[in-house]
C-alpha cells in the first residue's frame, strides 16, 4: 500500500514534530488494540515456516494411514 502525501505549504519544525508524535502514538494505540487481529491476518497471508512444516507433516501422516 502506498500513500502519496504532498503538502505544498511549509510547516514549522515544532508542528512537524508534534504531528509525527501524534501519528506515532495513534499507531501504537491502534496496534495495541488490534494486534491479535493484525497478527492473525498476517499469518494467513504469510504463514510461518514452522506452520507450513507442521501442516505438511500432518498431511503426510494422514496419507500414510489411508494405504
Broad shape: elongated
Average pLDDT confidence is 81
The secondary structure category is mainly alpha
Residues in β-strands, percent? under 5%
- DSSP summary: helix tally: 2
Percent of residues in helical segments? over 70%
Topology order in helix (H) and strand (E) letters: HH
Gyration radius, rounded: 22 Å
- Structure summary, number of beta strands: 0
The major β-sheet equals: none
What gap, in angstroms, lies between the N and C termini?
A: 47 Å
Taking pLDDT < 50 over at least 5 consecutive residues as the criterion, the unreliable ranges are: none
Task: Describe the structure in your own words.
This protein is mostly helical and 67 residues long. The protein contains 2 helices and no strands. The longest helix has 33 residues, at 13-45. The termini are far apart. The mean pLDDT is 81.
Summarize the structure.
This protein is mainly alpha-helical and 67 residues long. The chain is built from two helices and no strands.
Walk me through the topology.
Blueprint: H1 13-45, H2 49-66
Q: Which tags fit this structure?
A:
mainly alpha; single chain; 67 residues
Amino acid at each position: 500500500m502506498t500513500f502519496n502525501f504532498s503538502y505544498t505549504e511549509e510547516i514549522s519544525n515544532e508542528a512537524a514534530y508534534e504531528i509525527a508524535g501524534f501519528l506515532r502514538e495513534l499507531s501504537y494505540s491502534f496496534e495495541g488494540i488490534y494486534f491479535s487481529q493484525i497478527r492473525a491476518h498476517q499469518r494467513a497471508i504469510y504463514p510461518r515456516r514452522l506452520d507450513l512444516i507442521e501442516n505438511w507433516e500432518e498431511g503426510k501422516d494422514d496419507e500414510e494411514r489411508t494405504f
